[in-house]
Design brief:
single chain, alpha/beta, 10-stranded mixed sheet, 7-stranded antiparallel sheet, 14 helices, 19 strands, binds 1,4-dihydronicotinamide adenine dinucleotide, binds magnesium ion
Amino acid sequence: MESKKITLIPGDGIGPEIVEAVQDVLEASGAPLDWETADAGISAVKRHKTPIPQDTLESIKRNKVALKGPTTTPVGGGHKSVNVTIRKSLGLFANVRPAISLPSVQTRFSDVDLIVVRENIEDTYGGIEHWQTPDVAQCLRIITRPGSLAVNRYALEMAKSMGRDKVTCVHKANIQKMTDGLFLETFRELAPEYPELECDDILIDNLCMQLVSHPERYDVLVLPNLFGDIVSDLCAGLVGGLGVAPSANIGDDRAVFEAVHGSAPDIAGQGVANPTALLLSAIQMLHYLGMHDHANDVDTALRMALLSGIRTRDLGGHATTLEFTRVVINALPRRDRYPKSHIAHQGKAPKMPRVSEEDAATEEPKDWTVVGADVFTHGDGIDKLPKKVGPLQLNMVSNRGTKMYPGPQPDIFMVDWYRCRYLAEREVSDEEIHDLLKKVAEGYPWVHVEKLHLCDGDPMFSLAQGE
Ligand code: NAI
Ligand code: MG
């Protein structure tokens, strides 16, 4: 097998210590890898004045695979998070976090075998937030069809190529009918292409309760970004926490593997960091590269080491990074004793899923028309709202999502921020909406406008609670 060049990012704090340990194990395993070291984090700021130099991004793009130590996010100075920059600028749309019970790691459960696939780009992580009045803040949650197809496709392909049994789509589509509804809909569109997998879905709140009582009921979970963030940490807790939580960030033809934990400044430089999480990430990387035998060897050696009772401080032991690493290396099968044919044998690379052109293309809806607008006002009431402007009629007003006009006032605490829905019986023009805004502004300042669309006659907007 040809050797594969990997971008290696030592990172900050304990990063260089655990990266070196993992590099030693991989080299001892005989995996055919070459390294290209690249800077990121605080150490990069000193040398390049930015935590994520362009050279580092170029190296990842060239090699297509990176193994990354944790990086310290510089506080202040306007530096962006290294991880978010890497994720977004390389289009790493899926975050894959296995949570698998390890021997001798004390937890409440001993039979957890889960893989969390989290959408990595969209959702509230677009960071589109606004203050609309001194009392009201808004965050836009963006879910797209191509984004949802990409991560759901990946989860299904991954489950299939790994021989897993079940994929569960996690959502809150009963409340967020459009955003989570879209995420769930794309999952359901793809699922029939995978008859070998059991595909189901569950509400996020129910899932959390089920996971902490019966984690063995789940296999692969696929979730939108924010739910995935939370649930993947919950799953890490089920198997022993940060020291043993690996992750992979997967894009169309590139991937970055790293531990979930940070740079642990409190123990940096002491030689006591646990390399397990990064080693587990490296095992994911070997599988990604199709080096399944080496991946299995390293996995077995890690488990043998833990079974032997050796542990780093975070897991209640006394071993240093170096001592633990030596035991893992000694537990590796001796490849030099095998006949050549065995060394040459490599498992087939799993088909790495990509988003097909077909999946990504959004069909232009046939009939997509504007029939009104939600005008958000910052006012002390609604008495001065116009009831009708041209074809647009005041149809509904809500406060904090609850309908307050027409009909009786709801028994909730109100803020000085109203959503005023104007609808017409026919398509309306931009001029007609401009006229509406001018009239509304005679009574109250408006802070935000959202057009209301029909698609083939169906409303593309939610109703207020009580409407
Ligand atoms: P942290 O994960 O670095 O540390 C939390 C606690 O866990 C500490 O007590 C630490 O000693 C311990 N710990 C973490 N990894 C360990 C390991 N491998 N072996 C033994 N003990 C370990 O989280 P914290 O303190 O919140 O963040 C420190 C820095 O790391 C921050 O600058 C943060 O931005 C950054 N960070 C970077 C990440 C990345 O690059 N992927 C992820 C999370 C945080
Ligand atoms: Mg998190």
